[in-house]
Amino acid sequence: MPIRSRGMFAALVLVFAAVPAMAQTRPGVGYDPQARGLRISRYQLDTLTSPFLSYQVDFSARPDLVGAHPNAYTLSFADPAVRAAYELRWGPGTSTTRLKRWAGPGNEVRFVLHDALVWAWTKHPELLGGDTSNRNGVPTEVEITDMQALNDTGLWVAYFESELPGFSPDHRVVICDPAKPAGDGQETEPFWGIPYYFHNRFQPSFVSPQLPAALACAGN
Asked: What is the pLDDT of residues 84-107, one digit of tens each?
């Protein structure tokens, strides 16, 4: 092979060898609360009646990138570097064993926030605020905790309204409840504190006693 051809071949090998590295996905969905105008972490410590504390988030602190074994999906509080970065990002006392309650949804529903982030990455990446290119679509611990600490209500409510039954007039749940007015109705969902929409099939009869709800709604 001529020298010039060998040089061109070597250059092509380098280009194609770089493609897998360039194509390597990054963890997360690209969620950036700061770009969405959220910068303050709010939380309670010790008791549920304690006053909420406010803290200016340090977005440069990355507990998922420090410590002996950095991991985007698991934060080890046994690692002092992780604890320090955690508190620098979200506030003093947040990495301790003290009772902690975020202003946003609690740990018992982190899976819902996970699903909301996946939904946004899949269907509405413009809502995430950050760089969603070349992401693997799996929300990181930092992304989910940001949603809790900064209480990004707008994002998870948008997910509810779009995807979950009952949380928009276009996705009413059908019920049969003699205690509620017949037809379309609305109430506040007690856990989430947002509007909940239903269509009540129960129709009161003109005879007494009233039929049980299961019979009154049968065939409606």
From this structure: 999 999 999 999 999 999 999 999
Domain that holds residue 182: 169-216
State whether 156 and 200 are in the same domain.
Answer: no
Q: What are phi and psi of 187, to 5 degrees?
A: -145, 175
Q: Are residues 121 and 145 in the same domain?
A: yes
> Using CA atoms, how far apart are residues 46 and 89, in angstroms rounded to an integer?
20
Q: What is the dihedral of CA 96, 99, 105, 110, to 10 degrees?
A: 60
Q: What is the DSSP string of 45-68?
A: ESSTTSPPEEEE--TT--TTS-SS
Domain boundary (161, 184, 200) is at 161
Element (H, E) at 195: strand 195-200
pTM over 0.85: no
Q: Which residue has the tokens 């602190």?
A: 61
CA distance 53 to 68: 30
Q: What are phi and psi of 186, to 5 degrees?
A: -145, 145
Q: How far is CA 117 from CA 84, 89, 114, 169, 204, in A?
A: 26, 20, 5, 23, 43
pLDDT at 23: 59
CA distance 80 to 66: 10
Q: Are residues 188 and 144 in the same domain?
A: no
Residues 177/213, Cβ–Cβ less than 8 Å: yes
pLDDT in tens, 172-190: 999 998 889 889 999 999 9
